[in-house]
Amino acid sequence: MNVRDLLVAGTEELDRAGVPSPRVDSEWLLAHALGVSRTDLYADGDELPADRERVFRELVARRAGREPLAYVLGEWGFRRLTLRVDPGVLIPRPETEELVERCLELIADRAEPAVLDIGTGSGAIALAIADEHPGARVVGTDTSADALAVAAENVALTGLRVELVEGELFAGLVGPFDLVVSNPPYVAPEDVAALPPEVGEHEPRAALIESGATEAIAEEALSRLVPGGSLAFEVADGKAHAVADLLRGLRYEEVTIGKDLAGRERVVDGRAPR
Domain 80-271: which topology? Predict the structure, then answer.
């Protein structure tokens, strides 16, 4: 079969499985099977080698089972980076890119800021900050050895300067830090059943389901930040004001709520007292 025939077959299979964007996903999967970009897919109309067709059909079957596209591909784009991902880590999302954007604003006036990313997962936040603020000294922590293995692979892949530490929150870290950032678990347990199968059935539960991490990080960060240092969170849709109130109650100053590209309030930050 040629490219167009395979795309039609893949799209139909994904559509029957309820995949939200069957044509686009089929293009991503075929490009991955062929080792080309999506824009180069249509350059050759000849029949494809049997082994490439077989790989494509295997990838489509995985996606039809509602395995996330990023896990099927084994990589995902985040800001200027392409990162390795697997089921041990959350898939980087556009709202997290907005969190990074806010973090870069918060440390823009510091030549060599010390940055701590708690719950680093794939290392997306830590690596993006290191990439876009070359002077930053970035540490990423996680309790998951599997997640840190993926992050270590991404550190090696990008060549960026990020230190990785296995531990709970601030354990083993001295500081002080100019910025503490986190995308903590924030899905309420009662909301898990409503998540798309790609999320609820495949992404790591420990990184998804709220367990008090936001409150614990906010409380302890006060003693780990330099005076006037910043704390920044990604938060659940509809929870920004509650988190902002939490920070104000802990005496954080200049508490700000930021919106993602869809206009939803998803980023909250504040400064430690000076």
Answer: Rossmann fold (3.40.50)
